[in-house]
Every structure is written in structure tokens, then in C-alpha cells.
Design brief:
Strand content: 5-15%
Helix content: 40-55%
Number of strands: 9
CATH topology of the largest domain: Rossmann fold
Strand order of the largest sheet: 1-2-6-5-4-3-7-8-9
Number of domains: 2
Largest sheet: 9 strands, mixed
Number of helices: 14
Oligomer: single chain
CATH architecture of the largest domain: 3-Layer(aba) Sandwich
Mean pLDDT: 91
Radius of gyration: 21 Å
CATH class of the largest domain: Alpha Beta
């Protein structure tokens, strides 16, 4: 990585992950400052008056940026953006990369899923980023799904990847784990979206995934600072990325509240075709039935050629 490019990407890292500015403010900076060839290095060297005049930033945000510039972020005592340069170099040694919304591989599907001011400014990833260019279907569901829902998930994941579809999933127990198992058993491609920073991925789990990452079949993605811990709010934000990356979404099992319910309704708001596993009327899943009433399309597990049916919406 050339030194000038490294410095600019360090400034991107600082802006996207460490200033803790609202996403809409970050977008305002990107939109107004990078116009006419200015760089983020120029931005962090500029005066508060320039920030206010060019980026239309309220005073409370210019004051916050001044504090950040005048008080070096950890490691303590290092001037900006040296700390971020060192961190990016460390991430590169760990094969962790950063993708900004101006990069060529930034997911084009996000443009239809998010309002412009809500787009994740940057993403961290491990694996082959070109996986994002493949046709993809997300499989979502409860962490406490019953065995029939897990069996459905494994089967549908394996069937979809056999037809060249990439699976998109979160990284939790239950349906997320079953989607991973079904994909890997069929030697398919999968994008795993984390509800925390990429450094917080379980080391044993990462070691198990490493052969798939090296083979270009597993992409790990996070919209958070690499060291960000798991929070309920981050898990909810992660769900929007899971569905936003996909051309269609399948719900294996949902309650009428919680992460899967919110994620499924979020997918409908994003304009994603939502397919919901339809269970036997004698053993209904209340959340699934409610999602079908909300606009989800019933997906009977007993129907043959489910994968072919889903391919028609891609």
C-alpha cells in the first residue's frame, strides 16, 4: 500500500470508526469535503471554520473534531493519523481489510437497501471481497429455532449453493449456524456478517473457517470498528446489512418480536422479496404466520424445486 494511500485510508478509518460521529454527519463530510478533489487528509488538517463552511457542520461536531485532533487517540501520544496507520498495517498482517463506500467493491445492493445518509461508510472484511458480486440470498431465523427449522435451513442452504447462489448469514447459534453448516457441506459460498468487530470473532471459530476463507468460499464482514464488542443495538444494525446484501431473504423461524422479526420486516422495507417457511397448520410457527400476513411469501418445505422457485426473483 503506497504511503499516500495509506495515510488517506487511515483518515477514512478515523472518520468512519473512531470519531463516533452520526452516520449522517459522516456522509455530509464525505459529500461536501471530497468534492473537487479534496482529501480526508486535507479535512483533518483544516480549520473548524472550513469544517463549518464547507461541510455545513454544526458547532458541536466541529468542537468534537477539534478535541479528537488535539488529543491523539490510542496509542496515547501518537499524532493523527499515525495511530490509525499503525492499526491498518496490523490489520493487513492479519489479512483484515477495509472497504469504503467509494471503493469499487462496495456493495452495489446497498444503494437500494439504505437511504444515502444511512449507508455504512466503511466495512472491515476477511476473505475474497468479490463474493459480494455473486447472486445472494440471506437466510435468517431464531437463535433458539427448533430442530425442524434447523433441518430446513441446512437443506435449503445446500440446495441454493448447488445452484450457484451465495448464502448470507449472521453469526449466531441456531439458524445462522445451520445456514453455515448447510453451505459448507455443499462446498458453497457464504458471507458472514458479524454483530461486532472482526477482532471479536471467536478464535476457535475463526480457525475452523480459515480453510474456507483461504479457498475464497467464506467472506467475513463487519460494519463496526474491529474491536467493537457485541451489543444488542449492533446486532440489530447488522441485520440491516444481512438483508441489504441479499437479492432475497428466507425466514426459517421467527417469533413476533426480536431480531428475526425486526430483520424480516426491515427486509420488506428494503424492498427485498421475503420468503417465509410455511409450517403444518397443526404445528404453526406464530411469527412465521404473522410475517406471511405482513407481506412475506409462503414457502412450503415440502415443495420440490424450492431453489428453482427462488432463482426466479434474482
Amino acid at each position: 500500500m503506497m504511503q499516500e494511500d495509506l495515510l488517506e485510508r487511515a483518515c477514512w478509518f478515523l472518520l468512519a470508526f473512531e470519531t463516533k460521529l452520526p452516520t449522517r454527519i459522516i456522509h455530509s463530510i464525505i459529500q461536501h469535503w471530497l468534492h473537487e478533489g479534496r482529501t480526508l487528509q486535507d479535512f483533518f488538517a483544516a480549520s473548524p471554520q472550513d469544517w463549518s463552511d464547507i461541510c455545513q457542520l454544526p458547532e458541536k461536531y466541529t468542537e468534537k473534531l477539534m478535541y479528537i485532533r488535539n488529543n491523539a487517540l490510542p496509542p496515547q501520544g501518537m499524532p493523527l493519523p499515525l495511530a490509525q496507520v499503525l492499526l491498518l498495517k496490523q490489520l493487513e498482517r492479519e489479512h483484515i481489510h477495509m472497504l469504503t463506500l467509494l471503493d469499487r467493491h462496495y456493495p452495489i445492493s446497498f444503494k437500494s437497501a439504505f437511504k444515502a445518509e444511512q449507508l455504512p461508510p466503511a466495512l472491515c472484511y476477511m476473505g475474497d471481497i468479490a463474493i459480494l458480486e455473486r447472486q445472494s440470498i440471506a437466510i435468517i431465523g431464531s437463535r433458539n429455532a427448533d430442530e425442524s427449522s434447523l433441518a430446513f435451513t441446512r437443506e435449503i442452504a445446500a440446495s441454493l449453493v448447488a445452484h450457484g447462489i451465495t448464502i448470507i448469514s449472521g453469526n449466531a447459534r441456531g439458524v445462522d449456524s445451520a445456514a453455515y453448516e448447510g453451505t459448507i457441506s455443499a462446498n458453497g459460498y457464504i458471507t458472514i456478517v458479524l454483530p461486532h468487530g472482526i477482532h471479536k470473532l471467536n478464535k476457535v471459530q475463526l480457525q475452523a473457517m480459515q480453510p474456507g476463507i483461504d479457498a475464497g468460499h467464506i467472506l467475513i464482514l463487519s460494519q463496526f470498528h474491529p474491536d467493537a464488542p457485541w451489543l444488542i443495538s449492533r446486532a440489530m444494525e447488522r441485520n440491516k446489512v444481512v438483508t441489504g446484501l441479499a437479492q432475497a431473504v428466507i425466514v426459517a423461524e421467527s417469533a413476533t418480536q426480536g431480531g428475526t422479526w425486526e430483520g424480516a420486516n426491515g427486509a420488506l422495507k428494503q424492498g427485498r422479496p421475503l420468503y417465509v417457511r410455511q409450517t403444518d397448520t397443526s404445528l404453526p410457527l406464530i411469527g412465521n404466520s404473522a410475517l406471511i400476513e405482513c407481506g412475506g411469501r409462503a414457502l412450503p418445505w415440502s415443495t420440490d424445486h424450492i431453489a428453482e422457485t427462488l432463482l426466479t426473483v434474482l
